[in-house]
Amino acid sequence: MNNSNFFLKLNKKNNIFLQTAIFCSVLIVSLAGAEVVLRYKNSDGANYNIEMWKYSNELKDMFSDQGYEFKHKLNSSFKLQNVEIRTNNFGLRGSDISEKRDDKTRILFLGGSVTLGWGVSENQTTPFLLEKTLKASDLQVEVLNAGVGNYNVQRYTSLFFDELVTLKPDHIVLNFFIRDMEDLPKPNSNFLLRNSQIAVTLWIAYQQLFNKFNSESQYKFYKDIYSKKSKEFSILDASFERFKEYGQSSGATITVAMIPEIKFLDDYKLGFAHELLKTTASRHGFNFIDLFPSLETYSSKELFVMHNDPHPNRLGHKKMAKDIANFFEQLLLNEKR
User: Fold this and answer.
1) pLDDT tens-digit readout, 129-158
2) CA 39 to CA 267: how far, in whole Å?
3) How confident is the model at residue 43 (pLDDT cuts 50, 70, 90)?
4) Domain check: are 217 and 141 in the same one?
5) Which of 44, 60, 79 is the last residue of a domain?
6) Model's pTM, two decimal places?
C-alpha cells in the first residue's frame, strides 16, 4: 500500500513535470515563431518604432558613465526606413572628415534625429543642402552633421565638449528641435528589449495605453518645460553658457536654429517656446533663426517623412536649409569683407 502511494505520487510529479516541460516547449516555439513572423512583417522598413529600435542596436554604442549615454558607432552603415545611414570616422553622418583647412569655413550642426535627417537620404538633409547651396554661391565651406537620434540639448552639448571640440568649427549651429528641452530617460538596457521585436512591440503598446499624449497634454508639457523656473530650462541655460564660453575662447560663432513641432503646424500654439529660446539665445550672444516661417504654410501631413513618423521629409529639410542658407550667405559674405 505504501509502495502504491509512493509510485502514485511519483507519477503525479512526473506528469506535472512533463506537462510543464511540454507547456514551456510549446511557449518557446510559439514565441520564436511569432518573433520570426514579426521580423518578416517588419522587414519592409515601415514600422517607425522598430526602425528606431534597429537604429539603436546597429548604429549606437552604449555607455553608462557619460553625459550622453550613447553615441554613433564609427564607420558604420545600416538601412533604416529604407534609407542608408552611414557614419564616418567621427561618428557623424556623412563621409570621413579630414584635418581642417584654413581656406575652408567649417560649420558644425549639433542636434537630434531631425538634424541627423531620420528617414531621408543623406543628400536631402539640411546640413548637406546647406553646404550645396553655399558652395553654389562660391563660398568655401564644409558642413558637418553631428545629429544623433534621441539626443536632447544636454546630450549633444556633452558630446561636443567630450568628442568633437577637435573638429575646430568656425560656426556651430544648435539645430534645436522644440523637444530638445525634454529631460530624456536613460536608454533601457533590458536584454529582451534589446533583442526581441515582440518585447519591444508589447512595451510600446503598454506605454501607449497608459501614457496617452494628445495635443492638449503636449501643450501643457511644453508650457511646463519652457518656463524659466523649470529644471529643463536650467539645463538649457547651462548648456548655452558652455557654448558661449567656447565661442569667446575659440572665436566660433554660435547660431541657434529652432525647429517647430511639425505635428502641430495645422494649429500652432507653441510660439511661447520659440520666444523663450530666442531671448535666451540673444542673452548669450547667439544668432537665432526661427524655422517656423519656413514650414508654416504646409500641413503637418505634407511634411511627415512617413504617415506614422512626424520627422520632416525631404520637402521640410529643403525649406529649412533654404532659410539657414540665406542667413549664412549674408554672414559669410560679411566676414569676407
Assistant:
1) 999 999 999 999 999 999 999 999 999 999
2) 37
3) confident
4) yes
5) 44
6) 0.89
- The neighbouring-strand residues paired with 256 are 174, 288
Instruction: Name the CA radius of gyration of the chain, rounded.
Output: 25
From CA 254, how far away is CA 237, in angstroms rounded?
Answer: 14
Together in a domain, 58 and 32: no
> Are the CB atoms for 144 and 106 separated by under 8 Å?
yes
- Whether the CB-CB separation of 224 and 230 falls below 8 Å is answered with yes
Counting residues of the chain whose pLDDT is more than 90, the rounded percentage is 71
Of 334, 313, 333, the residue nearest 129 (C-alpha) = 313
Query: Is 70 in contact with 62 (CB distance < 8 Å)?
Result: yes
Cell match 494628445: residue? 214
User: What are the helix (H) ranges across 211-288?
Assistant: 215-225, 231-250, 271-283
Number of domains in the chain: 2
Q: Which structural domain range is residue 208 located in?
A: 45-336
Q: What is the pLDDT of residue 288?
A: 98
